[in-house]
From TrEMBL:
Listed EC numbers: 1.1.1.18
Source species taxonomy: Bacteria, Pseudomonadati, Pseudomonadota, Alphaproteobacteria, Rhodospirillales
The protein, known as: Inositol 2-dehydrogenase
GO molecular function, one term: nucleotide binding
UniProt xrefs under Gene3D superfamilies: Dihydrodipicolinate Reductase, domain 2, NAD(P)-binding Rossmann-like Domain
The species this protein was found in: Denitrobaculum tricleocarpae
Keyword Oxidoreductase part of the UniProt annotation: yes
Length: 330
């Protein structure tokens, strides 16, 4: 039985706590959160205890730590958990500073503990199937990848102010997907962006609409389309063009019912919220982490993937600000 301590009892933390409870080989032992009421509610629900960071990490019965607290706490908690010998499952990003991420990864490496990054979209059943069939060569060599990721509405301005911006907060998921699907590291990044949804986002120093083009050393291309607004729902699509054909993963909808009448053909809008759209992915990613720890294998995606995605996000931001293509050496 793998016992967890969890940092963070908010929206994402609640998802992870539910998925621990659903796994026959795991249990939640401790909850740590600055919001004592939220921590108490979660602990009471799962028979856990509310304790301090020090108490949670000092308990040798605890084998793993979930870090689902605010971004500014991630790096410190990773280092503390690593030094305590805990396997670590951390929400993205590790930190908003590449230098801080690098020092954090070094601590985890020296401690010899597993570190998984919660890039949950790799575990979405549709996307995972697409990637598997791509790797099996069904459509030949990858030539172009198109990733569409658009939120139904922007998050609160207070969140945007501390999020690190669209490229580091929202697009970082798509940049990880791009690396995964391209099968090669992008060496050129070109970005353009605007603020078309809410002027308050621009006043907060961010953008809400962006396009990024990536190019690998062999010439493979990827285009990522992001927007903080899609009136029709949560838009999550992937298309990969290969030398022998194409693979595509479409939006998920509440039902598959389609109506055809004299007025036209209609069907349900895409699922509205990311917690609904990626419910299966959240469960699968934690199951994969538990399996990796239990079998003493390296979890994936890991710390390097978190670092690489942040490098691409920083390059995209630099490209946008400097109005030029940024070159990366890996």
């Amino acid at each position: 039985m793998l016992e967890f301590c969890q940092f963070g009892a908010g929206r994402i933390g609640a998802i992870h706590a539910d998925n621990i409870a659903l796994h026959s080989g795991a249990t939640l032992r401790y909850v740590v959160d600055v919001n004592e009421a939220a921590a108490r509610a979660m602990a009471d629900k799962y028979g856990a205890q509310v304790v301090s960071t020090e108490t949670a990490l000092a308990d040798r019965a605890v084998g793993a730590a979930i870090i689902a607290s605010s971004t500014d706490t991630h790096a410190d908690l990773i280092e503390a958990a690593a030094r305590a010998g805990k396997a670590i499952f951390c929400e993205k990003p590790i930190d908003l500073s590449l230098t801080r991420v690098e020092s954090c990864l070094e601590v985890a490496k020296e401690a010899g503990v597993p570190l998984a990054l919660a890039f949950n979209r790799r575990f979405d059943p549709s996307f995972a199937t697409l990637q598997r069939r791509l790797a099996e060569g069904e459509v030949g060599e990858v030539e172009m990848v198109c990733i569409t990721s658009r939120d139904p509405a922007p998050p609160p301005i207070d969140y945007i102010k501390v999020s690190g911006g669209l490229f580091r907060d929202m697009m970082i998921h798509d940049l990880d997907m791009a690396r995964w699907l391209l099968g090669e590291e992008p060496v050129e990044v070109a970005a353009t962006a605007s603020c078309l949804v809410d002027p308050a986002i621009a006043e907060a120093g961010d953008v809400d609409t962006a396009l990024v083009t990536l190019r690998t050393a062999s010439g493979r291309l990827c285009q990522i389309s992001n927007s903080r607004r899609a009136a029709y729902g949560y838009d999550q699509r992937i298309e990969v063009l290969g030398s022998k054909g194409m693979l595509r993963a479409e939006n998920h909808r509440p039902t598959t019912v389609e109506a055809a009448t004299g007025d036209g053909v209609s069907r349900d809008k895409p699922l509205y919220f990311f917690l609904e759209r990626y419910a299966a992915a959240y469960k699968a990613e934690l199951d994969a982490f538990i399996d990796a720890v239990s079998s003493s294998t390296e979890p994936s995606p890991g710390g390097y993937d978190g670092h690489a995605a942040l490098r691409l996000a920083d390059a995209a931001l630099q490209s946008f600000k400097e109005k030029r293509t940024v070159t990366l050496v890996w």
